[in-house]
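Recall from the previous lesson that a structure prediction takes nothing but the amino acid sequence as input. Here we apply that procedure to Dihydroorotate dehydrogenase electron transfer subunit from Candidatus Egerieisoma faecipullorum. The sequence below is the only information supplied.
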Amino acid sequence: VGRGTKLLSAAVPGSRLDVLTHLGNGFDSEVRCERPLLIGGGIGCPPLYLLAKELRASGKTPAVLLGFNAPSEVLLEQEFKALVPEVTIVTQGYVTDSPVFTGGAYDYLYTCGPLPMLKAVYSGSQCGGQYSFEERMGCGFGACMGCSCRTKYGSKRICKDGPVLYREEIVW
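The prediction returns the following tokens.
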């Protein structure tokens, strides 16, 4: 636990906080697709909930596939189930082993989670998609270059140019 987490955990309701939030970009929910699949891993699942709401509001019905290390770590299951008809929770193995993923009944992917999961999703699918990267961000403004990653179009800073990147620009 770092200094910031310690300070935040000591805050009481009604405390005034000075924080930097909403750095970088988010998912583009207006992409043309018929059957999007949202894949989340661990703490990468909450950002997908807002996206699922946006997709539903635009008339799309995404399938949701969420992976966690253990049943006790599952987040937002009931919230997702109240929003979309197809929600699959994986607590053993990998989301990429799920029939929801391997069956390929989707035409676009949105994913957020740990880097090994993002790489596995990328290798296991050929359709277009958006990948939200989880990275430590030293400054949050792109000045320190601590969160840089290589893309087909040169280096991008996750804090400023990301965290969401399109499949076609990602270089592993």
